[in-house]
């Protein structure tokens, strides 16, 4: 566990993809259903199905997934301007990929973008590694390096529904330094490109730019994602992912 003294407490204002976040920054329209009516959205293991590659990911995105990755978190957005999505975990077994779990989730309240900027309230489309985790709560048994710190705590002047958003987080390696706490505010590409894009706990509506999931999903991912398996997230609206 990293020392919390190495964490900049002021970084909480940069959470969820914004240098400063208003009370409603992680708010949005209510959940209207996740992408893909045939997708499972619960914690039960799916029926065994094997694919040569993760389904509904086109050549453009698939070529960006590292060859040594054996865990893929796929975020299938319901539409380019929708805050609703489905998150699915796929694991590679031998030469095939199998769906391990699926959950209803949320993304940026205004949808998706291929050119994310600070404050646009859209989640970045792309393939990103997953290297670091943390949160307010004790380490639940994470395989990724986990930083527990009260500095993750959402300010209590936010809507009460958002107070537990950062109890568990997994950093998406967009405009950040790998190997640091998720709330390290360093932005290698500059502040204008945003940052602190995380998987974090869901409050029932769209986010500033992060992807949010139920608590049980976050616990499962933290206990399952293994740096030795080179986990990545591939994320975007469903049609863009298929392109």
Summarize the entry for a quick read.
With 243 residues, this protein is mainly beta. It has a single domain (16-30, 46-242), classed as L,D-transpeptidase catalytic domain-like, CATH 2.40.440.10. It is 8% helix and 26% strand.
- Cα distance spanning the termini: 40 Å
Major sheet characteristics:
10 strands, mixed
What is the overall number of helices?
3
Q: What proportion strand?
A: 25-35%
Q: Under the CATH scheme, which architecture would be assigned?
A: Beta Barrel
Q: State the domain count.
A: 1
Mean pLDDT over the full residue set? 86
Which stretches are low in confidence, meaning pLDDT under 50 for 5 or more residues running?
1-38
What's the CATH topology label? L,D-transpeptidase catalytic domain-like
Total beta strands:
12
CATH class: Mainly Beta
In percent, how helical is the residue content?
A: under 10%
């Amino acid at each position: 566990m990293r020392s919390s003294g190495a964490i900049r407490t002021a970084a909480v204002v940069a959470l969820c993809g914004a240098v400063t976040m208003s009370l409603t920054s992680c708010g949005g329209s209510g959940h209207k259903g996740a992408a893909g009516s045939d997708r499972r959205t619960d914690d039960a293991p799916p029926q065994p199905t094997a694919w040569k590659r993760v389904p509904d990911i086109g050549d453009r995105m698939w070529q960006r997934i590292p060859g040594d990755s054996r865990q893929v978190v796929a975020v299938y957005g319901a539409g380019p301007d929708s805050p609703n999505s489905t998150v699915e975990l796929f694991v590679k077994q031998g030469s095939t990929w199998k769906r391990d779990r699926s959950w209803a989730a949320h993304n940026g309240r205004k949808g998706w973008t291929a050119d994310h900027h600070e404050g646009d309230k859209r989640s970045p489309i792309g393939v990103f590694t997953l290297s670091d985790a943390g949160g307010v709560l004790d380490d639940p048994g994470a395989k990724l390096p986990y930083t527990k710190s009260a500095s993750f705590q959402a300010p209590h002047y936010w809507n009460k529904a958002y107070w537990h958003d950062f109890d568990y987080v997994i950093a998406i390696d967009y405009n950040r330094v790998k190997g640091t706490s998720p709330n390290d505010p360093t932005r290698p590409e500059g502040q204008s490109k945003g940052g602190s894009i995380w998987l974090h706990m869901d409050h029932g509506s769209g986010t500033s730019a992060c992807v949010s999931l139920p608590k049980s999903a976050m616990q499962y991912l933290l206990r399952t994602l293994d740096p030795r398996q080179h986990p990545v997230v591939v994320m975007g609206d469903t049609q863009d992912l298929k392109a």
